[in-house]
């Protein structure tokens, strides 16, 4: 019986250490059962981390503790008759103490915060969502499968996870469509140009085009299918370049925190203009622009770069730092590398974009000598 009590208290201390980050980090004490049910230890902690249950535990402990000495004396006098009753009483007291220890560790070290670590199951793949900031100071949240008319003249409509604009009268206004981390969406501009927008992307555009050019501004990643119009060329402006389009399908990846910008031509013709110099691309060519504004043009399978809009990840000998940046945007997680070496490991493979993140990481683990640890929405990557 004494060993059982000691083990119960030891287990509570282990839970408390885990919750406060004081453990050795080798193993989480909160483990799933074989049947995939909610972890028993985690369930205990969830139940006790409320004011009401803490008060109940304290009350139970005080009540049992007060009667324990008297019961113990009676047990000594009539050992055989009461052995089972007293054993349960003592174990109840031990369990109460164990729970209080877990609570105590957690509250003392975390400033009495009752938030448990987020389980990996709460990390979700991205979905269709966006926020539209209109030129007349409206903010419109757009959700998956939403159907709505966004303007009085019906020139802006949301349907089938797509925002569609049509020509209208008056003066154009400039809108900004923002795709958050963990999101994607599509837009059809008033000229018929269709743009698929990836996670963590901003597109600034007019409600319809006027003048000599059709200009949009991009921060992030997008795939364009541009309607051809010789009289009004289409121009994509990024923080580092202007892309002049001549009726084309192409992918632009221009995240501000990336060390490069990639423009990949699938069909047609485009010109990448950097520092007053234009680099012409033909299909299956990619222009890689680095932080020094140097352009390197390489031959590539262009469809591999835009496969994300078809619900896939396709990595072709890409380094792990770039891969994890893509996963971080799509799953809305934080990435932490334990060393610089691990960032330069390379991986090839094709993965479903809507797959559970643990399975995605496991696929990468199978072909590389690394391990992933998920704690809440932070993924830590270690070289084994």
Task: Summarize this structure briefly.
31% of the residues lie in helices and 33% in strands.
Explain what this protein looks like in three dimensions.
The protein is an alpha+beta fold. The protein folds into three domains: 2-117, no CATH class; 127-305, Jelly Rolls, CATH 2.60.120; 311-383, Phage tail protein beta-alpha-beta fold (3-Layer(bab) Sandwich), CATH 3.55.50. It has eight helices and 24 strands. The chain has helices at 2-20, 40-48, 51-77, 79-110, 302-305, 320-331, 340-343, 357-367; strands spanning 127-128, 130-133, 139-142, 148-149, 156-158, 162-165, 174-179, 183-188, 194-197, 201-206, 214-225, 234-237, 242-245, 249-254, 260-267, 270-274, 277-281, 285-290, 295-299, 312-319, 334-337, 346-352, 370-375, 378-383. The chain has a 19-stranded mixed sheet that branches. Helix 1 (2-20) runs parallel beside helix 4 and helix 3 runs antiparallel to helix 4 (79-110). The longest helix is centred in the first third of the chain and has 32 residues, at 79-110. The chain is globular and about 70 Å long. Residues 177-269 form the FecR protein domain. The chain crosses the membrane at residues 88-109. This is FecR family protein. Pfam families: FecR (PF04773), FecR_C (PF16344). Keywords: Membrane, Transmembrane, Transmembrane helix.
